Amino acid sequence: AQRVTQPEKLLSVFKGAPVELKCNYSYSGSPELFWYVQYSRQRLQLLLRHISRESIKGFTADLNKGETSFHLKKPFAQEEDSAMYYCALIEAGNMLTFGGGTRLMVKP
Amino acid sequence: DAGVIQSPRHEVTEMGQEVTLRCKPISGHNSLFWYRQTMMRGLELLIYFNNNVPIDDSGMPEDRFSAKMPNASFSTLKIQPSEPRDSAVYFCASSLATRNTIYFGEGSWLTVV
Is A33 exposed, middle or buried (0-12, 13-18, 19+ CB in 10 A)? Predict the structure, then answer.
């Protein structure tokens, strides 16, 4: 069963526009959710985790248990934000399960 | 720390050949993961070790794939024999104990022709 769903494979916006990358999860326990970013041909890097409630590179994400969502948002997209973004959920033990990823393209 | 180190970074091999991918986790980390990334299937967890012991290998595609972790600082993922459909980026990742941040290596780009 799909644990993490990212409905959009590609999201294209203009520079300065708001961005929202959607993530929905399915988990019966207390979820721990992450966003990872992968810039072109580089390793995956942790962007943020919900328990930290922090803002990294202008991105924020709020866990909504009622809607089982963890959408990633940024008010003003920059060209350097263009990358693959993966939502992930830690399951039993320490297994990180990823969504299918969303490619964000920020056009000038 | 140099982070998770993987080798080789790139490999091109012929169908039927054996492929061995190597990983050195971050020192002190006791969990190690192998992931495969393809355009079609995204990121898939292949196998997960905790304290050098395989915990979950349900993601290993078939018997042609095997993984070992002989000690806390080294792991291998072997494909024998390799097939063109194995072409992918293979990521190794490591973390401290349960529910800690997982750190990824730069990946091994495998092409089987």
Answer: buried
Within chain A, what is the greatest distance between any pair of CA atoms? 43
A31 touches chain B (CB under 8 A): no
B107 close to B88: Cβ distance less than 8 angstroms: no
pLDDT at A32 over 90: no
B89-102 residues labelled b (16+ CB within 10 A) or e (exposed) = bbbbbbbeeeeeeb
In whole angstroms, what is the distance from residue B73 CA to residue B24 CA?
A: 5
Q: Is the predicted pLDDT of residue B42 greater than 90, yes or no?
A: no
Q: Quick check: B59 contacting A, CB < 8 Å?
A: no
8 Å CB contact between B110 and B90: yes
Chain A residue closest to B47 (CA)?
Answer: A95
Question: What are the tokens at A93?
Answer: 């033990």
**Cβ pair A95:B56 closer than 8 A:** yes
Q: Which residue in A has a C-alpha nearest to residue B106's C-alpha?
A: A43
Q: Between residues A2 and A34, which one has the greater pLDDT? A: A34
Asked if residues B89 and B108 have their Cβ atoms less than 8 Å apart, the reply is yes
A62: tokens are 């709020």
Read off φ and ψ for residue A80, nearest 5 degrees.
Answer: -70, -5
